[in-house]
From TrEMBL:
Belongs to the ABC-3 integral membrane protein family. This is Metal ABC transporter permease. It comes from the Bacteria. It is found in: Cell membrane; Membrane. Keywords: Membrane, Transmembrane, Transmembrane helix, Transport. The keyword Transmembrane applies. The chain crosses the membrane at residues 20-39, 59-83, 95-112, 124-153, 174-192, 198-216, 223-241, 247-268. The keyword Manganese does not apply. It is a multi-pass membrane protein.
Amino acid sequence: MDLLNWLVEPLQYGFLTRALLVTVAAAVVCSVLSCWLILMGWSLMGDAVSHAVLPGVALAYIAGIPFSIGAFVFGAGAVALIGAVRANSKLKADTAIGVVFTGLFAAGLAIISKTPSQIDLQHILFGNVLGVTTGELIQVLVLGALTLAVLLFKRRDLTVFAFDRVHAHAIGLGTRRLSALLLGLLALTVVVGLQAVGIILVVAMLITPGATAFLLTRSFDRMLLIAGSVTAAASVAGIYASYYLDIATGASVVLAQSVVFIIVFLFARRSGVVWQWRRRRASRLEAARPAGQLAGR
């Protein structure tokens, strides 16, 4: 099989083309938001929101309404509930997050266990990207475009807020509003990502891209570009791998992103493990040379 046929063959199937579009759209939106989550130390919040939407998805399925509505309502509600627990107790942020998201996730599992004939647990937890309809594709593209547009429009304010909240407040930025905006966009992004990889794996799409880009650059603008482009490419590779290797599509996409992270972690210039090992080894060899050899150089 030549390369052109290898690339074109999967695209002959409409369901796989829709899966490719949905996955790339979700990957780009998740990767851009992940850059802010990594800088602000909000990775656990992404994990919390993605798990907390489960009861909303389950109730939406039971009610016969789009699951994105239930997911967004419960995602936003989880964020508000975490904030309320933190504001009215002495618990630290990670504790409040853990209590809320595990409670809501358990509630979702309980709802599903009572209505097993109406809800496919596998599709909710791990996604059903190969079963995406044209209407769901349009929904993901619209929500993704809206989220991305707001992120890019408020990019400067959100970046100042992420790097230095005190400075952001001092120059007149509404830090509470920016925090609420970012958390609301997180809930919306989780809704976008759910369709592609499900509740469990969307966490990886909200963390891995930003972590990968962070290892490659210290410029935030370049970080956004790297995260989006690398993640989109890895997602396409994951779709093709799932087709030719006959493995779960969502898992294949996340694995492709994880492989990219491992490569960057090991071989990235300056920050990679191999690069640092070579630099330390060169320093030890230089220090071990006799003084006479050093003077004669």
